[in-house]
Amino acid sequence: MVTMGARLAVVSEGEVHIELPFSGALSQQHGYLHAGATTSIVDSACGYAALTKAPPGLEVVTAEFKLNLLRPALGTRFLAVGRVVSSGKLLTVCTGEVRAFVNDGDSYKVVALMQATIVNVNATPA
Predict the structure, then answer these.
(1) In this predicted structure, what is the pLDDT of residue 36?
(2) Which of 23, 66, 89, 90 holds its CA 20 to 30 A away from the CA of 75?
(3) In what side-by-side order are the strands of the sheet with 91-101?
(4) What is the pLDDT of residues 18-34, one digit of tens each?
(5) How many domains does the chain divide into?
(6) Which pLDDT value is given to residue 126?
């Protein structure tokens, strides 16, 4: 996330927000935020949200996700919100959205939605 310029904005039990300022280095040929950058921040937000619910001593990895790109990602900054929907011993299901802000106000448009399955794994490799 550091390479992209993203930062954790909110961390609470079952919910994580990641902020990303727009950068031309992360845009595609039309000047929109690239889908890869969009996916990276929302996947990370969902993963960190799942980690807040993981049993002690376990880490998390994404097993699967579905991403819907709803509209071009145009904005001066973006906010990925990951939320835990259901958390079990092995699997956690999360939803995520990416919001595009055009200026410093509170008005935004949702540009992407994610549903993700996150797996709890041992913190130390076997």
Answers:
(1) 97
(2) 66
(3) 7-12, 15-21, 77-87, 91-101, 108-122, 58-69
(4) 999 999 999 999 999 99
(5) 1
(6) 62
* pLDDT band at residue 106 under the 50/70/90 scheme: confident
Tokens of 59: 């880490």
Domain carrying residue 88: 7-122
Report yes or no on 58 lying in a domain: yes
Task: Give domain status of residue 103, yes or no.
Answer: yes
Give me the DSSP letters along 6-73: -EEEEEETTEEEEEEE--GGGB-TTSSBPHHHHHHHHHHHHHHHHHTTSPTTEEEEEEEEEEEE-S--
Give the helix/strand (H/E) hosting 83: strand 77-87
Q: Quote the Cα angle for 33-38-41, to 5°.
A: 130
Q: Is residue 1 part of a domain?
A: no
